[in-house]
## 1
Amino acid sequence: MSGFLAGLCVAVLPLLAAGFWLGRRTARPENLGGLGTPVEHATFETLHTASLAAPPLRAGLTGETARKSARRLRTLLGTDALCLTDQDTVLAWDGLGEHHRTEIMERLGSPLETGRGEAFRLKCDEPDCSLRWAVVAPLTVDDRVHGALVACAPRESAVLVRAAGEVARWVSVQLELADLDQSRTRLIEAEIKALRAQISPHFIFNSLAVIASFVRTDPERARELLLEFADFTRYSFRRHGDFTTLADELHAIDHYLALVRARFGDRLSVTLQIAPEVLPVALPFLCLQPLVENAVKHGLEGKTEKSHISITAQDAGAEALVVIEDNGTGMDPDRLRRILAGEVSPSGGIGLSNVDDRLRQVYGDEYGLVIETAVGAGMKITARLPKYQPGVHSAGPLPRE
């Protein structure tokens, strides 16, 4: 869907450029600056102006985003005034004649209801106001009208009608992309909630049982473990953005492993090798801890001898390479494939399918988990994390309460 929308934007921009040139060629002297023909110059200006207007619109249609983009959109049309509205009010007005706000909202009933644009004559008693005509172009997303783009000019113009429609269509594409971004964010949030629900009861029960076992025999040890438990659960249930840093995720893992080692004692050993330069890398929240919990489960399940887990994070140029490996019971590769495909219950692999899906959604299909395993041969999980990905930014350290 997003590829189709991007193609639609590319197809619409030349039309906008032509309308821009026709509307502006008589409004100011031409100064091409060596950029070629007037149409080529107008195309360059249109692309540049559209690139400046797009980022605010990708956040949705609000008063703030409308205000930030209105001037750029008016430049695209070369008109005297332009406003953006939602269903109820004018969100932003740029240019002359702002006293027409009320009149325009009164005339938007039919366009907002039908989704069809129209043009009408403005009534004005202001002697200094040059605006006499308004062109309304609805803004639609998934066949729902979210608002309107209204261009105002001194005279009726067929070119303005066509250009306003094309600009409104381009704005609608940006709003649809914003809607897709928000849907993706909601999906990630839902998956984080599902992951918390999947891990937390198992972890909380065992952790509290371990802490309780030390209350009488070693109160100071019980206190230390209770603090580890509090810090880990506070991190796990935080509401502070969809992304965190590798340093924060590893810190939470350290709290988790402290509780696990208290439970299993010498049966479990852990080795960490972390390159300092990858600690600031941003990654999806609660992305690595489920992999470590999976390693603990498979490293200790059905074994009486000592188990070992290694966690490494290496600098790999444009990426951070995180590897979590255990010497446990492993898993049948076909069963693992079915777990990752969602065909069977993930009870044998806590969080694996969830983490794999989230990595692919955030970074692309080439960044899914790479898992090497066989029955009795342990498991090695590799996650590649790009050091930079548009939209992936840590919200910063978790605020202290």
## 2
Amino acid sequence: MANFSKSNVPQFSVDVYQNEYLPEGGREVDAIVTVTATGGGTTRGATAAPGLSAGQGPSAAVAIMVDCSGSMDYPPAKMRHAREATAAAVDTLRDGVRFAVIGGTHVAKEVYPGGGRLAVADAMTRGQAKLALRRLSASGGTAIGTWLRLAERLLSSVDVSLRHAILLTDGRNEHESSEALKEALDDCAGSFTCDARGVGTDWEVKEVTGIASALLGTADIVADPAALAADFTGMMAKAMGKEVADVALRLWTPTGTEIAFVKQVAPTVEELTGRRVEAGPRAGDYPTGSWGDESRDYHISVRVPPARLGQEMLAARVSLVIPRGGDSVENLGTQGLVRAVWTDDMAASTSINPQVAHYTGQAELAQVIQQGLDLRKAGDVDGATAKLGRAVQLAGVSGNTDTAKLLAKVVDVVDAATGTVRLKTKVADADEMTLETRSTKTVRVKK
């Protein structure tokens, strides 16, 4: 394990957990790669905000997108809580951060500062922004792609190290096509990260989680609008704790070897396979977004060419880089090795690495929850019961108590160990949406 240290950049380390032994003819190699960043500013960002000098963190720009469609007036307190939450987020900006507030309906409007520019956070601009928020009112439709495109234009107008956005919506994206939203997400991907929140219970879970996934952010439900301010404060504090953006997981494989899949498995399950960007002969980059003080786990599956007993090979080399455009890249100086060794020792070749087993179960947990809820909505009681029963079983085995509690609001658990459950006849919309939104959250394996 190697480390890298540089001013304003966390120190990264890579650990690889795997069973490298394969039986004769074996080709599948699985590994869990733990990436840890230390020396960043998450703790600092979470406790400081107004009054922090511009030199106490990397240069950053933030856009806050607030749903102002007509549905935000039902009940009227929803819009008030959205204004208060946005004000709380503005108060959490550290001095020197560029920022803007966008009001979103079927069009996107600059609420503050306006004029196609960003404000620089200090006591005066925070006050001005909060005054401007008082003018927010609810009317019109919802076209989220237009909000994202305005955020991209504003955030790209300044030369900063980190670009981040927060998006709040309470409804479905009814005033533009799904294709238009996807095009906007494709155009914005890589330009900034975005945390997305759905308030109330009238929004579409897959839309909000899809936005966060495409833009490498987090997604969650805030069922009670009164909880928005605390949620926005926490989101902005985490954003202020990020120290480096655009970090990519670079995988190099030898001739004859191919990557089966790459996925983040902690703190959430996120499929990365299709996001590969070629990075030279037999190498590809997988985006991971922005980092502060934190640790994440990735599951890498590699197919290697068959070899004779006793042979061994390097199946993949894992490193961390920051692509700078063209052939320019900043290498963060740390790497991990995934190995393959062929053996006739059955005990060695059939042993499943505990980390790999744990996260395989966690990925299946996320999948069966989604499948179970989809089947429940479609009226397939038997199919939903089977899938959600399997989810209860997996949550219990892996120690994912938070997910187990959410499942218990949708099913009556008869026997968690066998996955025997009954669908509840009445389920609150908020409970079902919370389970669906948080289905990809995982627990770390106990090492």
